[in-house]
Amino acid sequence: MYQRVALFSALAALARAQQAGDQQDETHPSLTWQDCSGGSCSDVSGTVVLDSNWRWTHIIDGYENCYEGNEWNTTACPDGATCAENCAIEGADYSGTYGVTTSGGELTINLVTEHEYGTNIGARVYLMEDDSNYQMFNLIGKEFTFDVDVSNVPCGVNGALYFVEMPQDGGMGVNGNNAGAAYGTGYCDAQCPHDIKFIDGEANVEGWEPSEGDENAGTGQYGTCCQEMDIWEANSMGAAYTPHTCTTEGLYRCEGAECSDVDGDRYGGVCDKDGCDYSHYRLGDREYYGPGGTSVDTNEPFTVVTQFLGSGSDLTEIRRKYVQGGQVIENSVVNVEGVEAYDSITDQFCEDYKEAFGDPNEFAELGGLSGMGASLARGHVLVMSIWVDFYAHMLWLDSSYPTDADPEQPGIARGDCPTDSGVPEDVIANQPDSNVKFSNIKFGDIDSTY
Question: Is residue 58 within 8 Å of residue 72, measured between CB atoms?
Answer without folding.
Answer: no
